[in-house]
Design goal:
Blueprint (H helix, E strand, L loop, with lengths): L7 E10 L4 E7 L12 E4 L2 E9 L2 E7 H6 L10 E6 L18 E10 L4 E6 L13 E4 L2 E8 L3 E6 L1 H6 L10 E6 L1 H10 L31
Antiparallel strand pairs: 1-2, 1-6, 2-5, 3-4, 3-6, 4-5, 7-8, 7-12, 8-11, 9-10, 9-12, 10-11
Length: 225
């Protein structure tokens, strides 16, 4: 579990296909590797990955084909910056919101509007996820915990403060760039628990009967507002 507060802006060192629909990624992150061990979870652009090995300030992780297909990690190349966050520790402050590191879908930057002290960014929102996104609610974009400023049937917008623009990849995302999205898990549980008691609802799991958002990897997401 994560909080969506990015600890460090890391860098992809190398990627390599390992066969059998999977890949190995090596990422440099001096802060997150300081106490990292084999089996630990680190969120990379909002995707929870399991540490396979640590060599100095570089850690490696296996990435399943499912993750490559359902997230934007497959597009990473050496030199690319990535948002990094270690798994939250019990007893620590929850600065963002509860983030699983299981990507629900891939969106894209639609527009950027700079202002004096912040920037409004609009993202494309997959139709299957729109019912989970509400104004003033929480959403995770590339591992960054953000508050929804506005929402439409196929888009949502957020306001990015200077710290987020400077310390995460969101400051450099251009129009058209893909981003990993994770909606608030509480919304999905509420829908599932209410089942057919909701008007027009059913006891099917979220996404049934349409495109399946699908979690990315059953291991741990990173942050700012």
């Amino acid at each position: 579990m994560f909080t969506g507060i990015v600890e460090e802006l890391g860098e992809v060192v190398r990627t390599a296909e390992t066969g059998d629909d999977s890949a190995l990624v090596a990422i440099r992150g001096p802060l997150v590797t300081g106490d990292a061990r084999h089996g630990d979870s680190i969120a990379v652009n909002g995707v929870c990955l399991t540490v396979v090995d640590v060599d100095g300030d570089v850690f490696t992780a296996d990435v399943m084909g499912e993750t490559l297909r359902r997230s934007a990690l497959g597009a990473l190349r050496p030199g690319a910056p990535v948002n990094l966050e270690r798994a939250a520790a019990l007893g620590s402050r929850l600065g963002g919101h509860l983030v699983q590191g299981h990507v629900d879908g891939v969106g894209a930057v639609l527009s950027r509007q700079p202002a004096a002290q912040w920037e409004t960014v609009r993202f494309r929102l997959p139709a299957a996820l729109s019912r989970y996104v509400v104004e003033k609610g929480s959403i995770t974009v590339d591992g960054v915990s953000l508050t929804v400023a506005g929402v439409g049937p196929d888009w949502f917008s957020v306001g990015l403060i200077p710290t987020t623009l400077k310390l995460t990849t969101l400051g450099e995302r251009a129009v058209g760039d893909p981003v990993n999205l994770e909606v608030d898990v509480l919304a999905k549980y509420v829908e599932r628990l209410l089942g057919d008691r909701l008007p027009g609802g059913s006891d099917q799991p979220p996404g049934a009967g349409g495109p399946t958002p699908g979690a990315v990897e059953p291991t741990p997401g990173g942050g700012g507002r």
